[in-house]
Specification:
This protein is α/β, with parallel strands linked by helices. The protein is built from three helices and three strands. It starts with 5 loop residues before the first helix and ends with a helix. It has a three-stranded parallel sheet, sandwiched between helices. α2 links the parallel β1 and β2 (43-46). The protein has helices at 6-15, 31-38, 67-76; strands at 19-20, 43-46, 60-63. The longest helix is centred in the N-terminal third of the chain and has 10 residues, at 6-15.
Length: 79
């Protein structure tokens, strides 16, 4: 998509069934997580680095890092 306005970001995140955070790095708290929460979009988070410490809630789903685990978690979500 390239650079888009904040309004467009909110529209696209709001349209999504789920937001997958697929980071392999030890990040802080990516802004996209709060954007998804503000738009009531569930977030899949890997159990890695600081992302692991984000509390469980009704909008986060944790998975063990790795593509196979991500796919299995996605397949287990009723949509």
């Amino acid at each position: 998509m390239g650079m888009v306005s904040q309004e467009r970001v909110n529209v696209e995140i709001g349209r999504a069934s789920v937001l997958c955070v697929t980071s392999l790095m030890y990040e802080g708290f990516p802004r996209v997580i709060t954007q998804a929460a503000a738009n009531y979009t569930p977030v899949l988070l890997p159990n890695v680095g600081s992302l692991e410490s984000i509390g469980d809630s009704n909008w986060t789903i944790k998975y063990d890092s790795g593509l196979t685990n991500l796919v299995a978690t996605l397949n287990s979500i009723p949509m």
